Amino acid sequence: MNKSNLSKDAVFLRQATADDIGALEQLLNCCYRETAGWTNEADLVGGIRITPEELANTINNPTHYLFVYPKTTTGERDAEETGEILGCIAVDIKTDADSNKKAYIGMFAVHPALQGQGVGNVILQAAETFADRHLQSQNQPTRLTMSILSHRPELLAYYQRRGYQLNGNKIPFPNDGNNGEPKREDLELLELEKKISA
Prior knowledge:
The protein has four helices and nine strands. With 198 residues, it is an alpha+beta fold. The chain has one domain (8-195): Aminopeptidase, CATH 3.40.630.30. The strands form two sheets. The chain has a seven-stranded mixed beta sheet, sandwiched between helices.
């Protein structure tokens, strides 16, 4: 991959469409299930990360916002897209038992060739800003949550540096065949939380 036009200063996001499903499937399975990049889970979970049907459901869900960072011919916002997706992140607006809304951050991925260059930080910040504006427009405090796999201390440290903290909620990794195949029996999903407005 040519990195010359992939500066973090040129990162821009748009909402995903059905036309992005193939490229998104490729990106997410590459980032999570192959051994390239530091964010992969290949030593913890096997199988595929996501299916085209799951992506279509996400894109069509009115409370779920899936954003993509498309590769373009020149790296400029208005340039022609190549069809490749370099990064993505999802914001799912959820309502809890007390009718309070919160934003769940998921499907966060950056192409392995771009990892470590600050692109992920830009994408995460954009998702947080979107969630904050969306919830504040409904006069709701902004509470962000996400889940990460246990046994990933470097990933936990990454999010802690960005203000996320473990909140004590955790569940065993689902062994239902829909989320990949866990390679160890003690694998869990740990919930992180960040409050960015009162």
